[in-house]
Amino acid sequence: MLHIAICDDDKILLDNLTKEVELWAQEEHVVCSVEPFATADAFLFAWEDKKDIEVLLLDIEMPGMDGMELAKWLRRKGERLSIIFVTGNPEFAPEGYELEALSYLVKPVKREKLRGALNRAEKQSGQGAAILAAVSAGEVEKVYVSDICLLESRDHETVLIKRDGRSIFCKETLRQMEQKLDENSEAFFKPHRSYLINLGYVERISKRDVRMEGGALIPIARGKREELNQAYMRYFRKQFRQHIPHAW
């Protein structure tokens, strides 16, 4: 299920956006929940309790903590949910762009613009590509590709580590898992024969190892560092192009 939040202090607009998102989900056959919030503080209270929101439609100018402050707080915490700004002032665009906002919608929000932004957010969310990992004889677990931080080979099995720190022990070799992921994503790289990493979760590349979000240090095999650097730059150049704000 795709979890969507809408945060706006204008009750009429909040209600209208909620109805429009629900209509979009119905017509696009997207299973989702939509939760409205009248203030940034109310959203934060719910977020701290359960961090399951994947898409946030966010007003910028609100009393108390405004939308830009909320977005900055989320990004400082490393949260990757898709943010769609809803604003009456397009002058905020440059600042929001630095926060990797998916889109900017100017009030009054046009239906086609809203739906275009939601379609892009849905593709970026965990509702996108997934693989089936064999966890025991006859049992499999669906894992969204965007949730995978890294994989480690151990004997003839693979330990899959998710972005929330959870480990899944798979009854498949690293090579088999790599083939599955290559069919769904360009984000993975093998810096060492025993590891496969998601470039989106790399924090630092040094001479001998890669530091991943969460603190894991992954060794870099001899002769792999330059190839890793090039793959990392290609990946983020592509992400940069995808995050250029779409016209409102």
Short description:
By secondary structure, the protein is an alpha/beta fold. It has seven helices and 15 strands. A hairpin with a 2-residue loop joins strand 6 and strand 7.
Provide structural commentary:
The protein is of the alpha/beta class. The protein has 7 helices and 15 strands. The chain has helices at 11-28, 40-49, 67-76, 93-97, 111-124, 174-182, 225-242; strands at 2-7, 32-37, 55-59, 82-87, 103-106, 130-136, 139-144, 148-154, 157-162, 167-170, 188-192, 195-198, 202-205, 209-212, 217-219. The strands form 4 sheets. A 5-stranded parallel sheet has the order 2-1-3-4-5, sandwiched between helices. A 5-stranded antiparallel sheet has the order 10-9-8-12-11. It has a 3-stranded antiparallel sheet with strand order 13-14-15, with no helix packed on it. A hairpin with a 4-residue loop joins strand 9 (157-162) and strand 10 (167-170). The radius of gyration is 20 Å and the shape is elongated.
